[in-house]
Amino acid sequence: MTPDKETTKCRVVMDGSGAEKDKYSINDVLQPGAADIPDLCTILLLFRAEEFGIIADVEKAFLQLLIRLADRDALRFRTFVDVNKPLTPDNLVDLRFTRVPFGLTQSPFLLSQALKHQLAEMADQHLAKELHNQTYVDNVVVTRRSEEDAVKFYETTKEFYGNFGMNLRAFQSNSKRLMEHVKEKDKAQNDIQKVLGVKWTSTNDTLNLEIKIPDKKKVTKRSTMQQYFSIFDPMGFLIPATLNMKVFIQELWKHDISWDKPLEPQLAEEWQRLIKEAEGFQKNLPRCAWHNTQEAATLIVCSDASKSAMATCAYLVGNATSHLVMAKSILPKIQRDPEMTPSMPKLEMTALTEGAHLAVRITESLKDKITINKVILLSDSEIALAWAKTDPKRCTQGRAVKNRIMDIRKARDQIALKNATTMLGYINTDCNPADCATRGLTREELQNHIWWTGAKYFTDSLDEWPKRTALFELPCDKEEEDKVNQPLQHKEEEKRPPSQTIQTARSPR
Length: 509
Prior knowledge:
It is a single chain. Helix 7 runs antiparallel to helix 8, helix 8 (239-252) packs antiparallel against helix 9 and helix 10 (344-366) crosses helix 11. The strands form four sheets. This protein has a five-stranded mixed β-sheet. The chain is an alpha+beta fold. It folds into three domains: 31-67 and 75-204, Alpha-Beta Plaits (2-Layer Sandwich); 210-287; 291-476, 2-Layer Sandwich (Nucleotidyltransferase, domain 5). Helix content is 32%, strand content 18%.
């Protein structure tokens, strides 16, 4: 039962994991199929790329797929003839599914393959690729630059899905022209919709972030986990408010505490304090993070580390605006031996590397929507930046640092494939937005923090940035330089001995 949903308030779900003791369930013996569902974070990132957002869903998607007759007995179940009568043999009936139900481990795979098969026959293969990459199970999430393109998308996809018996419905968009064009039966009922779990108000085109934590009567290890994971934050926007809760749970695992034993009063009070500091946070972010898709953008990624956590956050900058688009935090591994704990510079180096990986992910995701011509990686650790400059072959800081140096250079090369240059530089701790994601903030502190837009000077030209930033590009490895400077030769020419470079020409007959 899902009474809060507009379309399907009640749906039949098969308990595919249910089984008798010491016996297999149907999900245990089914092949789940290869994962072919796009990354949720990538779809949400793309949803912020253009002026007009559009969402829709496929009506009763799983139930549109027929199960062949020979396989239907595998989906038999016994139920009541009349639920209001007592349990007797006459009041039981055996039924079976004729269509793919919810609850089977392979249902998402079957749906994705059915849609993939139909998309392969679509006339517009560019649109087909977009639909494949931006459909999460049965939820379609796309953007368009103009209202004309938005209307065209609706007309094309509505007809396409209808041709093979599926109905695309529950359309919502911040485009007034599109919503005027959409038939009333195909519209979403409310202006506030959830886009893959994130609230979106289409009337003012904002993403609505909030922290709601369910109450628990007892504070146990199980209840703390349940409360923490009730906060859905796929893009990492709420990391500063939830970090200390995450660190608290990690600390619990250092002690031998059973799942359902109440925590000691001191620990319980500490947890309740952390809940109180985060509970009730609300913030609206602009859904569109880049309005002028004709100009090139700069991606600025900041990183930081503390003894508690490492964090990195990315900003799309240009046209005098700077928007937080994605963030990530990592807790250092628990080391039983204190001497094995990495030093702060090494933690900062790991954070810088994670920032480089995040930059690769974002540039790859946005390559078809936004031109990013410059990537800037910032850290408040001058030691980590000095290590990043070092030739990995000459690194004397150990295997871990050497691997990080090579990872950053590999990321630089991957970004270069998108025609973007990568620079590194210093950012003062006071200006570093990633700093708060390694120490934590209360909901009041987070409300208007630089976390949301980055340092004030991010929107200035690079010439006006603080001199201490000292932006630099990573040097090419010597082998790469030699390879670049070496004249091109054909393979046959490389293998041919010098004496055969010039041969005697035969006289024509």
